[in-house]
Amino acid sequence: MISLSLWQWIYRILIIIANLVFFIYSDPIAIIWLVGLTLLGYAMGLELGERLKTCEIPGNRTEGRGKCKNILIITIVLIVGVLVFFKYGDLVTGQRFIVPLGLSYYSLMIIGYLIDVYRGEVECEKNILIFSLYVGFFPQATAGPIGRAKELLNNYRKRITVSPQDVKIGLLMITLGVYEKFVMADNLSMVVDNIVRSQAKGTTLAVAFLLYSLVIYYDFAGYSQIAIGIGRLMGIRLMDNFHAPYLATSLKDFWRRWHISLSSWFRDYLYIPLGGSRRGYLRQILGILLVFILSGAWHGQALGFWMWGLIHGVSLVIENCFRRLFKNIKCASKAVIIPLNMLKRIAVFMLVSFAWIPFYAGDVDKAFSIYGRLFSADTEFAAQIINGFGLRVEVWIVIGISVLLYLFISILDEQYKYTLYEKIADHGWIILILAIDMYTVLLLAGVYGSEYDAATFIYGGF
Predict the structure, then answer these.
(1) What confidence score (pLDDT) does residue 65 get?
(2) What is the C-alpha to C-alpha distance for residues 367 and 378, in angstroms, rounded to an integer?
(3) Rounded to an integer, what distance in angstroms lies between the CA atom of residue 48 and that of residue 19?
(4) How many CB atoms are closer than 10 A to CB 354?
(5) For the residues 336-354, what does the mean pLDDT come to?
(6) Cα separation of 354 and 300, whole Å?
(7) What is the pTM of this model?
(8) Helices assigned H by DSSP within 27-127
(9) Burial of 362 (0-12, 13-18, 19+ CB in 10 A)
(10) Cα separation of 238 and 151, whole Å?
């Protein structure tokens, strides 16, 4: 680790104090679990690091690795046990438990760190301040992104600097994230809730869940943008969490783009260790189904989450079957490829949208009721269109233009290999114009006020 100055250590201490203040203000009880699991992860990481050194002694490798594996398994069981207790404990005790703020996220970060230490991919962290920053950095603690030890620890171990470029990029990302949440996600969320509550059927209900796909995306991607932007303002680089998921041409592609930090975590620490695609096709199918069911279970005990995970798992297995059947069929004509990819994107978006129904419903019976209503006759669609689904025409115009703007930004970001924000930051006037325009629109069409709970990010509840 690079030798750090006194001011660098003071800066880290100030960030840790900010982390604690944030948790105390948001959820005071959560401090107990944050500090407890941080100390557990730190101590077990040191223990693993020391024991792994003894494995280098001739004749001690097998026994030493076995003891390290036992330590790793016991620690993971303890951490997962805490998580399961809060998410599922009421099924046994009959008493409802509130999941401590950020527990679902920093638990996976600690587990990932310990596995990386065991694998020899990361050196165990000996400084408790550095490890505390890794676990409890407040912008990412409540809803991710779920950082990786290799990148974040290197960031915290080195000299932290904040350049003018960082400030511009951070402000740009915060502006885009705030706009996504308060103008786009929250306005569309009211439309979806009103349609579902009205017992609408058929086309009207289908429109609601096509819109819900946008709601959950703009809500969660908005939070991620804000978190990454705040981190950038503080000199901390957090990983991207979304890469235009609704531009995906397959479910496999979708999960490479959606909630990247969680989907890649399950891939690297569960799916691949279970064998991935290396131990036969049947093993691969079972691995996919298990990963997606556990992904649903991670969200909470509501069976709708489990159903959502199962739908994605089964759909991905079916997609892989078709991919194996038609893997030798290739087409080089752009006249065919371009419209075909467009049809694929529409199909993936439709599938993902209707898979969100049990996620939204929570309850399986409610989910099946909604699916049943989808195939019922709709007599209200024309009236709903005339009524603007409950939103003013000018708000729909704002949302429509905004969707096109964000789509353009996403496509451009892909073209620039996800370095678009760096390129925009080279021209500060663009950020200034965007900020003035977006915050003006937010004042006119945003959802806020004395009765509005600004903390209601969808993934903040997991």
Answers:
(1) 78
(2) 18
(3) 27
(4) 18
(5) 89
(6) 20
(7) 0.90
(8) 30-54, 61-88, 90-93, 103-119
(9) middle
(10) 9
